[in-house]
Amino acid sequence: RMDAGENLIVLDSRPLDEYRVMNIPTGIDLPGAELAYRVHDVTPSDDALVVVNCAGRTRSIIGAQSLINAGLPNQVVALKDGTMGWHLAGHALEHGQSRGAPAVSPDGLARARAAATRVRDRFGVRMIDTDGLARWRAEADSRSLYLLDVRTAEEYAAGHLPGARHAPGGQLVQETETWVPTLGARVVLVDDTGVRATLTASWLVQMGWDVAVLENGLDGVALETGPQPSPAADIAAAARAEIAPAELKAALDAGTAVVVDLALSRTYKAGHIPGAWFAIRARLPASLPRLPAAETLVFTSPDGVIARLAAPEASELTEARVMVLAGGTDAWVAAGLPLAEGFENMADERDDVWLKPYDHDGPVEQHMRDYLTWEVDLINEIERDGDHRFRLFPA
């Protein structure tokens, strides 16, 4: 249909970093909650076929259903098996793209707000005002409360409600436990127009969460700026000693230090300090003896937090001097220092986190097939799960 020049548009519902890895030709990146918010400004006409895809199936199905729930007049479909299915069918993918939607137009915003109203009414999305939020915050010692800003990272950094954490809407639905780990907690979502918060909340309602949208949440409030602070920014005292990136580079060049990287294995593979050893914090007693002898062990992690926590533990397990890279590997990158890729030095098995099919070394096609088989079978897993909380809402 693409070759025939039919009137269709392809929308990729993954975050930009995943979209850049591989995307369907002509596809536009509109992750998660951005779909219903921005779709009106990228759809050429109400007659165009809207095809939503992700890497596999889950986010394409959620994204397509979100547009259907929002009342988009177009025919909306999910691409079966996503970019992996496209690749397995022998079609070419694009790589390194960054096609996104333009800024939302006044007409697009009006239509998106109307869609959000329809979704709010259908799924019973609750609204809360600032007084209600204040009451819930006062009760947070007895019942957990999560205040989450579902806009883009750039919008969050430009100005967000004090105390709100960043949780992009689509990923919040996909990986809820990452941002809301406490079962039974209250969840309050906020954005600038209510559209993305409402669409995200509609899925959390279906998933059984006690969720509300903060009405006019960014209006009349002094906003904080900057990226999200580390949740453990107050643990600096946990580190016995720090070393700056330039000092570490000199120590590595002199052969007097060994770096221990506590990042997730897939993060380590994508980029780590050259020569660093991958290790898992919980297994340090077994992994430290596998390291080469060195005067100094320097622990790092992406932002340095896990490294700070691990350093005192490691000091009890080795005679070497234990230090922490100030600012973690992020600071090393910010200093313009090089990274290496791959699994070059492994002090532990890379079983700490699930790898995407295309994260594996060598041919990935069988990993793709295995993943898609597992994903298709999820419906049967749900039927076997007697305590899932998903609520059904009639069309």
- What oligomeric arrangement do these chains adopt? single chain
Q: Measured on Cα atoms, how large is the radius of gyration?
A: 23 Å
What proportion of the residues is helical, as a percent range? 25-40%
The biggest sheet amounts to: 5 strands, parallel
Low-pLDDT residue intervals, each spanning 5 or more residues: none
Percent in strands: 5-15%
- Can you count the beta strands? 14
Report, as a whole number of angstroms, the end-to-end distance. 29 Å
Structural class assignment: alpha/beta
Average pLDDT works out at 92
Shape by Cα distribution: globular
Biggest sheet, strands in spatial order? 5-9-8-6-7
How many individual helices? 17
Quick gist of this model?
By secondary structure, this protein is an alpha/beta fold.
Descriptive report:
By secondary structure, the protein is of the alpha/beta class. Helices cover 36% and strands 14% of the residues. The chain has a 5-stranded parallel beta sheet. The two termini are 29 Å apart.
